[in-house]
Amino acid sequence: MADLEALIKAFSGIGVDENSLISILANSNHEHKKSLRKGYSKFFIEDENGFERLHQSTIKNLKLEFKRFRDAVVLSLLHPWERDARLIEKAMKKGPRHYSVIVEIACTRSSNELLGARKAYHSLFDHSIEEDLASHIKGSERKLLVALVSAYRYEGPKVNDDVAKSEAEILSNAIKNADKRKPIEDEDAIMILSTRSKPHLQAVYEHYNKICGKTITEDLEAEGILKDTVECLCTPATYFTRVLDAALTVDADEESKKALTRVIVTQKELREKEGYVPNKIQGILTGSYKDFILGLVARGEN
Amino acid sequence: MATLIAPDHPSAVEDAEALQKACKGICIDILQLDHAIIQKTLLNNEKDLIKKLSEKWLKRGSLETQRENSPKQMATIDVPHQVSFLEDAEALRKACQGWGTDEKAIISVLGHRNAAQRKQIRLAYEELYQEDLIKRLESELSGDFEKAVYRWVLDPADRDAVLANVAIKKISPDHHVVIEISCTRSPEELLAVRRAYQARYKHSLEEDVAAHTKGDIRKLLVALVSAFRYDGEEINTRLANSEANILHDAIKDKAFNHEEVVRILSTRSKMQLMATFNRYRDDQGTTITKKLLGESGDEFLVALRTAVRCFNDPKKYFEKVLRNSIKGIGTDEDALTRVIVTRAEKDLKEIKDLYHKRNSMPLEQVVAKDTSGDYKAFLLTLLGKED
After folding, report:
1. Of A127, A158, A191, the CB nearest to B222
2. Which of this chain's residues are annotated to bind Ca(2+) (chain A) (predicted)?
3. Total-model pTM
4. What is the value of ipTM here, to two decimals?
């Protein structure tokens, strides 16, 4: 039935196709809807008491998809400082699997943007970010995360190449000694990554490559947010491409989809490959959510 | 029936820049002027504009004097009601011209101006003589007097940045100066110091601290300078209780859980810390600073104690620094200058009173005995002593 196919399609992307839903369901009578439910086996099962019941998980997922446009709008409306403060607070509360969001914000914002987020956090939550992170996070990520959000990095181009080289060696040693001590808890590594300027860290990245023959991100593959840290600081374009790639797939998980909204709303430049992002968006996103995201990408600045 | 033709969306900044170009040599920092004055004088000729601007300079000088003096009851410097930055700049120029230097004139001007006024004087001097007043003073003066005047003339945030840099770059870094700055300044002031530090030294404060220290002390200092504490009054008593216990356990064990101590001291708001220290004292029957006494060889312990004392009672802390700088043989001019210059516009009066109570002698008397010449005259002026 054409309507059934259209209904399934309306719920098949990231977001929901509101217009299709209106045209299919608004005029749908009781019998018509019954036949839709009977045909939509992915969403409805025959209940023993004689009605077509909606899967519990479907309710949850539908709520998420309907919310997606709303969340994107609110996120894009907020002042960047409030936005980042709220994102950090949420990520902290949700737990270790979400700490990469904290890394993303702390490491890809400018020094003054991060400072602004810290001020907004004061206003919103009556605490400093660092005190909440430090008391909330008990695991090995704590030191690195607190240090990263506390940074007020120098933003000039000046780099001391000798220092960059020796710090590349320090990082290399920290990674080599991973069996004795987790690199994410290595004090020297944390100091380097949380206090040095981004141009300096890019020089460190180059030296590491020369010294070890591999990029530091390759060597940190197994190190979770430590890898994210280095990527965000030294090669942010690679980081964002990776996040978008993970989101723009058919079986992306909820966190990846949320990342899609977050990255597109917060990043001003997504020019990795000409037309890459808009094409993929057309194929996978749907409804008002798709239109909004396409609009953000097309405009190129927030 | 008004005849004024004014644009729909005037930009005060653009107007100011245009006016500045038009009045080169007289106008110094028009961007600080009232939009209202600029609008009003747009239709008048240049002479009127200049007249209004000089009036504005005078008014602003006295306005700022009033604004500065009323909340700062505890400042010691004595600032006149009417100030002309142009005249001050001229007076300083005169003092530096010719063969010698008129140090008394320098002291009598700069020693009686607050931070905002000193900034305007520097701008006026630059505009009038195309020269940096600070560089001129550096070349004319010498010794402890020069160091004191140099620090005094800088903006407070810039001054703290210089003090921090000097402390860090020593062979054996002065940890207590870094701790003093990070713990006694307000969160906004500390941010201003970090910005000023970057502008001056092309590095962040935290990266230089990290590069010049090691071990636990490094962790503590970097965390303290990086803090942007919540500035509110709220206290969580349950939290104060639990963190007082954490501190107690950490100190008792002596096998310090440094991580927790650093966490608490470097992230909590100042009000929360005070509540925690008070709770500690109530629970343990003795203050946390007393408990931290002992191993003076353990630099981490010493640093912790300094930090706690700075949070708990900064005036008492500064009184002790002063007392130590002038007692016994020899004087620690760096410490003496640092405390007087950084607190003269804040709470030096209370510190003086504390000193007097504790030592049964006024601070001015001891400073006069222990120092000499222009350096002495300058310090006494900052201490509020009548000439």
Report:
1. A191
2. 11, 13, 15
3. 0.84
4. 0.89
